[in-house]
Amino acid sequence: MKVESWDWTPGAGVGPFRIGDDAREVVARFDLRKWEPLFEAEWWESYEIPDTESSISTEEGKLSSIDCYDHLYYKEKDILALCLDDVRSMLGPESASEVHPYRDGILVVYYSRLGLTLFIDGETIESAVCDEILDDA
User: Fold this and answer.
1) Which is more confident, 2 or 98?
2) What is the rounded distance in angstroms from the CA atom of residue 65 to the CA atom of residue 56?
3) CB 133 within 8 A of CB 108
4) Residue 98 confidence (pLDDT) above 60
5) Which among 69, 72, 104, 118 has the fewest CB atoms less than 10 Å away?
């Protein structure tokens, strides 16, 4: 089944992918292909979403996150097409402790209160991970 919607609901999911859904049902419904783990000790599984660059991750048999590389719509705007200043205008500021240098100049910006992590290269938001809202955020 082709994914038609990339609308994000903070802490709940993206399009048809809902945090906490049964992983087997999601994998079967969308004919997802499992990726081989990058590390031996990974406790999660990742699956490619067909015809996209995006994927989902599962933990303990449940969908735990959606990794968006293609689109991520919020209030009718594609977050992946915006600059960080525009995202901050829309979502509010992240705390200073949530912005960390990553690798090769990639900046990781956490919106824990929304269940959103952005990966930024220069002025471009390369991808976003959408997951549950953390209680301690």
Assistant:
1) 2
2) 6
3) no
4) no
5) 104
Pairing of strands 62-68, 55-59: antiparallel
Q: Which residues contact 109 (CB under 8 A, 6 or more apart)?
A: 84, 87, 94, 98, 99, 117, 118, 120
C-alpha to C-alpha distance for 61 and 44, rounded to whole angstroms: 9
Q: 20-31: string of b/e by CB count within 10 Å (b at 16+)?
A: ebebeebbeebe
Residue with tokens 């600059």: 83
Amino acid identity of residue 103, one-letter, is R
pTM of the model: 0.88
Q: Is the pLDDT reported for residue 9 higher than 90?
A: yes
Q: Which two tokens stand for residue 94?
A: 């992240």
Rounded to whole angstroms, the Cα distance separating 23 from 4 reads 19
The count of C-alpha atoms lying within 13 angstroms of the C-alpha of 30, restricted to the half-sphere facing its C-beta, is 25
The reported pLDDT for the residue numbered 101 is: 65
Backbone angles phi, psi at 136, to 5 degrees: -90, 10
